[in-house]
Structures are given as C-alpha cells and as structure tokens.
Amino acid sequence: MRVGLPQAQPTAIASKMRSRPTASQAAFMDHSVSPIGYVRSCFKEKFAIPRQPSLAPAARGVVELLPPFDSADAVAGLEQVSHVWLLFLFHQALENKPRLRVRPPRLGGNRMVGVFATRATHRPNGIGQSVVRLDRVEADRLFISGIDLLDGTPVLDIKPYVPYADSLPDARNDMAAEAPIAIGVQWSDSGLLQARSQAARLGEPLVELIEQCLAQDPRPAYQKPEPERRYGAQFWDVDVRWHYPTPGVIRVLEVAPAAPQPA
User: Fold this and answer.
1) Domains in the chain: how many in total?
2) What's CA 17's distance to the chain center, in Å?
3) Which residue range or ranges hold the TsaA-like domain (predicted)?
4) What CATH number does residue 232 fall under?
C-alpha cells in the first residue's frame, strides 16, 4: 500500500533502478566503517539528553580524534567554520532486527510512524547525525557545544555546516513545525547552592546545563508527572535529582557528586 504518493507510470530509468545490483555495487553492500574518534561528553547516561542538538547550548564536549586523523592536516581549515555535522553511531541503541515503525516522543509516545519519518535512535544501521557548534580546534581534538551525544559515542565522520546549502527557508516538517515548548525549571535553595559549587569545581556552566536540559521535559511522554515521583540523571560527574511539583514545572532538589563507576 502506498501512503499518499501519486501513482507514477514506470519509466526506463525506474525500471533500470529496480534491476539487480552489479558486481561492483554488490561489493559495497557490506561496506564496514571505523570510528575516526570518540565524544567525551557532559552526558554520562541517555536519560535527560536533549532530543535534538542545539536545545542545550551549555551542553559541551570534545571529539577526540584517532590516528591517522589526530593530525593538524585533517582539521586544517576548520578554524573558519562555526558549526559542523557529526555522523556517529548510536552505540547503546544497536539492534539486530530493524524497526519499521517507532513511537517518537514528539507525538506523545503513543502514535507510531515510519522510522524514516523520525530521528529516533532506532536506525537501520545505527547511524545518527547532529549539527553542533565548533568552539575550538586543536590538532587532535574538537571542542563542541550544543550537543546531544552520549559520552563515548563513536564518531564516523565530520563535515562543515554550509549555511547557504544546509539552511532551507522553505523546508517543512508538519510533525515538528516548531521547537518544543520548554517547561519551567525551579530550584530549591540547597540545590542551587550545590549546583553553583559543583560548577565552580568543574569550570563548566552546570546551572545553565541543568536548566536547559530539564526544560526539555526528559520524562517519558506517556508518564504522568506526579509530585511524589523523583527523577535523576548524571551530568558530568554529578547526580541531579528533581520532581514535578505541578504539571509543567520541574523543581531541582539536589545536586551531588556521582558515585564512582566500577572499574
């Protein structure tokens, strides 16, 4: 069954495209790729990572390049670029059986649509892409912000963002026409003091990072926010605890050092 597509008459080109691949084409069907680097990120777990890049400008990280790409030659010219595309692997969401339909959070987590109509992490080949701000370039490292990437994410490729080609004023997406509405983030007095103390220790904009990420409402879309339920996530090396005193409002309760990870 076709979904909303016009019934076009077959053409010679279309018929040729349906033919079996040539030997040279078949040789690339199982082409393997290797990471060119890894992301060191403020996000140590999947929960509370923004669902799109640039929603949390204070979310920072570093792309650590691997040989032979950890060279000034590989990054020459990037100092002229403000943003880059990162192609990466959803290394904690790889699946043996592809999903054809998914439930995107933007639609409340209850409506299923085709995987190719979404940016869900459940990709046929586990590949994701994000455009991020490039803050600084070193021979073997790229300092980035506005990220939505888990710590340890394998990076497959890096490409410069080209404004005249990548920004399309007439583009549309009726499922996500506008940025999601941010919810209010409040602080307990002790939680804010703790966050400021940890921010000074880290040398990172931790208060802004917490506010920007929690404003995206990280709870599962199908889950009703109840005041007695507590939520938590790790940013950098601190644990953040919060709850929903009323629907549409988050109150940060505690910011404390995270427990050491087992070796």
Assistant:
1) 2
2) 34
3) 33-170
4) 3.30.2310
